[in-house]
């Protein structure tokens, strides 16, 4: 009996854990009568911090406020713990080896995007990206820029655009300061610097600071530490920052 209760408890914890990650989000729904024939498209993708991020709390309301009800399409598709190889079809490692699942998550994402925009005139396309943790952990930062720019090229070709707006969520300061996870991944800072330089190199792009979104309390040590994942309030702030940056890009400010 005790063993059965323990199994049920573990299953319940796993259910809560996976339910907290909202991998897919589409706004408005296909049957929403307020959806217009013309709209600005916002595509969100990445790994766990994008999967856990809920656009409807702060991002969507701010985007709707900026562009008007019915004038926006928002598609999010994300999966935790994944390398950029799951999005870039021609990915090869620093060592020159191809990945085993190249581009499969991109295919999933673009299928949802194309379904959402069918029959609509798209006024602008913005790509919002929160990813890179995995590649920093497995020491593949050396091929990250080529992979990300290749991913953008895939989007341009599939959507018939050359005017993408891009917003990159820069990796947080996880493992960079003395404490619980200090020095855990040697390429973490390198990835942060690379993401900033990529945003500055692109013609219409910006990056978002995430360093203050992940401050959590280690109850055993009674100390603050920088977690790889963000707090509830941190995700809400992330949505506000994404909305602010991408609105400025779309409006040409």
Description:
- The chain has 253 residues and is of the alpha/beta class.
- The chain has a single domain, classed as SGNH hydrolase (Rossmann fold, 3-Layer(aba) Sandwich).
- Helices cover 39% and strands 19% of the residues.
- The protein has a six-stranded mixed sheet, sandwiched between helices.
Instruction: Outline the low-pLDDT stretches.
Output: 1-20
- CATH secondary-structure class: Alpha Beta
Strand order of the largest sheet: 1-3-2-4-5-6
- Count of all domains: 1
Largest sheet: 6 strands, mixed
Assign the structural class, choosing from mainly alpha, mainly beta, alpha/beta, alpha+beta, or little secondary structure.
Answer: alpha/beta
Helical fraction equals: 25-40%
Shape: globular
How many individual β-strands?
Answer: 8
Strand content: 15-25%
Query: How is the quaternary structure best described?
Result: single chain
Secondary-structure element series: HEEHHEHEHHEHEEEH
Mean pLDDT over the residues: 90
CATH architecture: 3-Layer(aba) Sandwich
Could you please say which CATH topology applies here? Rossmann fold
Number of helices: 8
So, the CATH homologous superfamily? SGNH hydrolase
């Amino acid at each position: 009996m005790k063993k059965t209760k323990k199994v049920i408890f573990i299953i319940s914890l796993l259910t809560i854990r996976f339910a907290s990650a909202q991998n897919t989000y589409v706004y408005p729904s296909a049957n929403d009568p307020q959806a217009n024939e013309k709209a600005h498209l916002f595509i969100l993708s990445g790994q766990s911090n994008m999967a856990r991020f809920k656009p409807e709390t702060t991002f969507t309301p701010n985007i709707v406020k900026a562009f008007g009800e019915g004038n926006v399409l928002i598609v999010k598709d994300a999966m935790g713990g994944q390398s950029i190889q799951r999005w870039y079809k021609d990915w090869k490692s620093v060592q020159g080896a191809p990945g085993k699942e190249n581009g499969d998550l991109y295919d999933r994402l673009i299928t949802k995007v194309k379904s959402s925009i069918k029959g609509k005139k798209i006024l602008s396309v913005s790509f919002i990206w929160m990813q890179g943790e995995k590649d920093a952990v497995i020491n593949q930062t050396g091929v990250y820029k080529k992979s990300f720019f290749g991913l953008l090229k895939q989007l341009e070709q599939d959507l018939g655009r050359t005017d993408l707006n891009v917003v990159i969520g820069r990796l947080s300061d996880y493992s960079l300061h003395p404490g619980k996870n200090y020095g855990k991944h040697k390429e973490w800072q390198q990835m942060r610097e690379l993401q900033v330089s990529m945003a500055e190199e692109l013609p219409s792009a910006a990056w978002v600071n995430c360093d203050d979104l992940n401050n959590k309390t280690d109850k055993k040590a009674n100390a603050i530490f920088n977690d790889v994942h963000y707090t509830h309030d941190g995700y809400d702030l992330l949505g506000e920052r994404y909305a602010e940056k991408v609105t400025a890009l779309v409006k040409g400010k």
